[in-house]
From TrEMBL:
Family from the record: Belongs to the CWC21 family.
Keyword Nucleus attached: yes
UniProt KW keywords: mRNA processing, mRNA splicing, Nucleus, Spliceosome
Cross-referenced InterPro entries: CWC21 (IPR051372), mRNA_splic_Cwf21_dom (IPR013170)
Protein name as catalogued: CWF21 domain-containing protein
SMART domains according to UniProt: cwf21
Amino acid sequence: MYNGIGLATPRGSGTNGYVQRNLALSYKTKEKGNFKAPNEIASPALKKPNTDIIEHDRKRKIEVKCLEFQSMLEDQGCSEEEIDKRVQTYRESLLGERAKEAKDKHGRIM
């Protein structure tokens, strides 16, 4: 027996009598009452939208409209040069319209 721990004699116990410390036992305690109520938690600050992403999305929508216009012209049987010119003027008109539209304080089109 070691410091009052273990067997008085290992005979008949199936062990050699060696005493080891139990490392799986955890004595850590949590502090209680340290949590905040949901109404006490501050809401996260709103981030400003990324203007580059908004601009990219706007241009992407314009290109989709241009591709739809191009496929419509191809279905009508127009020549390649005429299609290119008409799509380019359509693209410029869409870009001009978007530049004139009013935007709110976050850069979104109203």
